[in-house]
Amino acid sequence: MCTVCGCAEGNTRIEGHDHHHHDHEHGHSHAHDHDHGHTHESGPVTVVHHHYHFKNKGDVHIHYHVAAGATPAQHHAHSHAHGHAHGQEHSHQHADDHHHHEHEPDHHHHHDSEQSDPFAPQQQGLDLHYGHGPAHAHAPGMSQHKMVQIEQDILGKNNHIAAHNREHFLADQQLVLNLVSSPGSGKTTLLTETVSQLTGNLPVAVIEGDQQTANDADRIRATGVPAIQINTGKGCHLDAAMVDTAYHRLALEPGGVLFIENVGNLVCPASFDLGESHKVAILSVTEGEDKPLKYPDMFAAADLMIINKTDLLPHLNFDLPRCIESARQVNPNIEVICLSATSGEGMDRWLGWIAERVISKEEPVCA
Description:
Elements: E1 11-14, E2 40-42, E3 45-54, E4 58-67, E5 76-83, E6 89-96, H1 113-116, E7 122-124, E8 127-129, H2 144-171, E9 175-181, H3 187-198, E10 204-210, H4 215-221, E11 227-231, H5 240-247, E12 257-261, E13 278-284, H6 291-294, H7 296-301, E14 304-308, H8 320-330, E15 335-338, H9 347-357
Helix pairs in contact: 2-5
């Protein structure tokens, strides 16, 4: 289980062949047998596995091992990579704890109801509000303090790789756009129309994220644009390591645009930096004008909100000004573009927004 967002990562598959995964810490090689394709809990230890699978090279794994019960002084984290005799590579991150706690035989704990349940909701009238603790996930039997440590471990590792990605993107003069939305927003249709219009004017490539199938990558490739599919298994978002692996398989010319179509989800992708230049949140008029207020983290993280399927407005009860007001209530600086990928209305504004941000080959790049 991903302790940041609560998802079960399952097996992540990235299209391609023969790739060496870059470990950003240190590594060593040895023969090693390892069960894979699972997330498990054993006693006090919670183990989180990210698995990357390739057709010819075996598996590339990123593992986070976390043991419950440590204090900050007892917390120890390290990462390492091993090459395997049967063509598997692993990157591990461990948080090892040693905690000893004793009581006299007649000692008893006394807690009031709030102290005994750190995940108890706040109640306002008839409404229950969860998620007000310092951690953002819930694991039965694990303290909020430990959950915060685990979140910091996972996001810290992700942010380290995201910084590495950003350095590559800047060096390669790539404008990288992370497209996020709920399922059914028309994200892939918009992306297909966008790359079709950009082809011939700019170098363009796409990284597609879904739980299963290569349907969306196939739609992009049908336009003649290179695309790599990442299937996240049970995972509900892309992370920086997945993007790093996929990016090194794309031979992109400088001054181009890389689109990352994230898994359809307005919650978890908000927490994971991929190294992108901008997050672009796509909302369709078939959803609801209060979406930015319901999912504030995503719209707060986005630089641009695209309101899609505006050709359907005459047939819907959708309050467009209220939607824009809701987004700016969460993020006063968010830009808004209204368009229809189907009719083409407003597409010029979206393409112009991209063109203004493309890194020119003549421009100096500051690392």
